[in-house]
Amino acid sequence: MIDPSSPLARFWDEFRHNRIAVGALVVVVLIMLIALFAPLISPQNPYDLATLVLTDARRPPGFVGSKGFTHWLGTDAQGRDLLSAILYGLRISIQIGVMAGGIAFCLGATLGAFAAYFGGKIEALIMRIVDLQLSFPAILLALVLAALLGQGKGPLIAALVTAQYAYFARTAHGAAATERSKEYVEAALSTPLSPRRVVFRHILPNCLPPLIVVATVQVANSIALEATLSFLGLGLPVSEPSLGMLIANGFQYMLSGRYWISIYPGVALIVLIVAINLVGDQIRDQLNPRLRR
Amino acid sequence: MLGFVIQRLLQAFVVMMIISAMVFVGVYAVGNPIDVVLSPDATQQIREQAIKAYGFDQPLWKQYADFLGRLIRGDFGNSFLYNMPVLQLIGSRLPATAELTLAAVFGATFLGVPLGMYAGYRPDSTFSKAVMAISILGFSVPTFWIGLVLIFTFAVELGWLPAGGRGETAQLFGIEWSFLTTNGLKHMFLPALNLSLFKFAMMVRLARAGTRETMLTDTVRFARAAGESEWTILTRHVLRLIAIPIVTVFGLELGSTMAFAVVTETIFSWPGVGKLIIDSITTLDRPVMVAYLMLVAFFFIVINFVVDISYAALDPRLRTRRA
Amino acid sequence: MTLLQVRDLQTHFATRSGALKAVDGVSFDIAAGEIVGLVGESGSGKSVTGFSILGLIDPPGRIIGGSVKLEGRELVGLPNAELRGVRGRQISMVFQDPSATLNPVLTIGRQMQLALEAHEKTSEAAMRARAVEVLERVGIPDAARRLDAHPHQFSGGMRQRVAIAIALLNSPALIICDEPTTALDVSIQAQILTEMKALARDLGTAMIWISHDLATVSSVASRLLVMYAGRIIEEGPVRDVLRAPRHPYTAGLIASLPAHAVPGRDLVQIPGSTPSLFDLPPGCAFQPRCTYAQAGCGVMPNLLREENRAVRCHFPLNGSGS
């Protein structure tokens, strides 16, 4: 075994040199922390309907509410403090994005690696289905599934996973097929190891780099997709507003100039997605051998 | 070549069958469709009549067989909601979506490819970095939010452009089109821009990555060594070399843009099929959902087919291998 | 008459670990019609020298000093638009792998047309006629019909002939050949070598033949330049250098030629490996691998000229080689 810390250390050393990527990474970590500790830092619990004051509804940023504290980002149609709602919304969005991305990762990577490992008809069947799905827009698939499965976190995550696992499967299959033909796998196969062991211990770890790139992109995509579904009214129930739903709720007030209800949650969403994508971009560039000199 | 076409047609048929089965199971087997057609307080008798009338009492495979039979006859049933033939309903909405999608994809390609090539050619210039920043935004920012910002900025605050609707239309070949009138174009501009941003970002990235890699190849060095100008190299060599992935994505994006039109049409109240499908999903208007999904699948297959054939036109290496 | 005069050429690559001195003070002359071989291991700077002459160094590389004069005209520092007029018309280049240099999606005729148009726009018919003429010249049968073929429809050897034809299109005075036969089968290598030699003689074209393969170069070139770690370390007529190398490195190269091998015995090798350009020893770069190294070798030797020979060594060999 090679010391695993050394390639990682080299990777970080190169990563460090792109200041934008490092900044983005800091932002991602910061937002994750904020989301994690949202109940502790937000001025109000936006889900506790008892604390909402209807006369405080749709107030602009900086408004001092009847509860005495300042609504720095204004309030929404129910009189919710928008800042608190955004912090909680981030929490939900990240939770769903990471869970959907993680499940899709595991499912897709395993499927792709096994397809490459077994080859033959199994491979052809799995990859045909995956290709078929990839040629179909993820958003439509998620839309229909979300509509059919009903509202709630579980169904939503299921819809997102179904829409996204194929990307992981494709990537894992591509990388694993290359690995499969290498000598060390042939060597592992000639020993009486179970296929499961070969796939999980030998093939998958070597497919990780491209999968990680896909994972960063797909977590960002999950978050955006969830927001889109919620915006269209097919995501989470109203009782737990994600960022997408906050934006949707503010849409009708935008035409009368009350921009903040939609804009600020949107800004939070974008900062998060852009930051994840920037980190992903840098990882991709670093792992792309064709751009190496 | 003919053998290749026949083989692809057969494949397309099989794929359509599989998709029809999946769509059918997905849309009909989950939930109880009868609840949609009838009000909750309908009597048991009315319920049973309706179940018979719609064929919901038959076993699933029988329902599927009937469904397939009707599909082949081009009968997608009646919309529960609008109570009119689905095909007619979709047909009346299709031109609006078609013109919006085409405007978005063509706009994105003809702007995105040159800009992306420049960004790949001069990756360190300020202009390239600006282009890339816009493309990262276009890639990351959800379409619906950009739509909101566009409406807020150009319709609400500045009042330059209308916030929604199709505006005036004019007839061509018996179909109403917005792009034929100034007012219609004004209405189309914001939604088309909104829809094209993601595609634009994608084209920029694709063209940039392709150009960057191609510029490092010996083909470019050799052309330079022959004294060819950078303009010639970019337009004659690089563009031809990166055209293959671009054409693929162009084709595939045409389909997925139609899918994304769902979001844009909702925001801009653009009366196309996207708006229709959202309404049908929220009301579980199953015949419309099925017909729409089959339509999109059909589009995808046609587009894939065309893309495959244009591959052969663009890459002479494939042409001889297949001949 | 001197066609090309290179003086103290320096091409460096900016890297994170400092400047990589790929070419570090190279000087030589090429006479009109002369074929010169430029030999060295990979990383010795021979290819970079070739590209530097044409100003075809991509960033982070840069020519930081020296001069390249073509018929008395300075090329270093010339604006790109003017350099473009030199490339292909006065100096052209043939690369190692023809399947990488030719554009796979354009027909041969189209590519030749682009190379011609770069310098002079004439009628389509005139350009086709010129293309056919040159293709026939390099031995492509049925050239008129082959113009509409794509590169992949040619064999490896034929493809390289096409590349050579493109290099010859505008009748340049000098062709830089960067390992043009390395990627080809041995039998085709020999054919191309002989034909290029004949072409150069018939057309009066000078050539710089860059290769790591001393045997190939020796069969084409009349004069030899040996490079090591970014510098020229030996220079002289092919026959003289082969018979009596003066630099220990050249001697090692000659001794390791398979033709010199004794059957049943291992090939002679130069001990050690090519040094990293980041980590050159002080003084003579070959010193750590040199069996003749002495205390004085820690100081960089100058290129000592003597009639038509030159050597960069404090203790040059003077016998009949190893």
In words, what does this structure look like?
With 293 residues, chain A is mainly α. Chain A contains eleven helices and two strands; from the N terminus they run αααββαααααααα. Chain B has 323 residues and is mainly alpha-helical. Chain B has two domains: 42 residues, no CATH class; 231 residues, MetI-like (MetI-like fold), CATH 1.10.3720. Chain B has a two-stranded antiparallel ribbon with strand order 1-2. In chain B, a hairpin with a 2-residue loop joins β1 and β2. In chain B, α5 runs antiparallel to α6 and α11 packs across α12. The longest helix of chain B is centred in the C-terminal third of the chain and has 38 residues. Chain B is globular and about 85 Å long. The mean pLDDT of chain B is 79. Chain C is of the alpha/beta class and 322 residues long. Chain C has a domain of 150 residues: 3-Layer(aba) Sandwich (Rossmann fold), CATH 3.40.50. In chain C, a hairpin with a 2-residue loop joins β4 and β5. The radius of gyration of chain C is 20 Å and the shape is globular. The chains are: A mainly alpha (293), B mainly alpha (323), C alpha/beta (322). The interface between A and B is large, with 39 and 47 residues.
Secondary-structure blueprint:
The complex is a heterotrimer of chains A (293), B (323) and C (322).
Chain A: H1 5-15, H2 19-36, H3 38-41, E1 63-64, E2 70-71, H4 82-118, H5 120-134, H6 138-149, H7 153-180, H8 183-190, H9 195-231, H10 243-254, H11 260-287
Antiparallel strand pairs in A: 1-2
Helix pairs in contact in A: 2-4, 2-11, 4-5, 4-7, 4-9, 4-11, 5-7, 6-7, 7-9, 9-10, 9-11, 10-11
Chain B: H1 2-28, H2 34-37, H3 44-54, H4 60-72, H5 86-121, H6 126-140, H7 143-157, E1 170-172, E2 175-177, H8 182-215, H9 218-225, H10 230-267, H11 273-282, H12 286-314, H13 316-322
Antiparallel strand pairs in B: 1-2
Chain C: E1 2-15, E2 18-31, E3 35-39, H1 46-53, E4 61-70, E5 73-74, H2 80-86, E6 91-94, H3 98-101, H4 108-117, H5 124-137, H6 143-146, H7 156-168, E7 174-178, H8 186-203, E8 206-211, H9 214-220, E9 223-228, E10 231-237, H10 238-243, H11 248-255, E11 304-306, E12 309-311
Helix pairs in contact in C: 4-5, 5-7
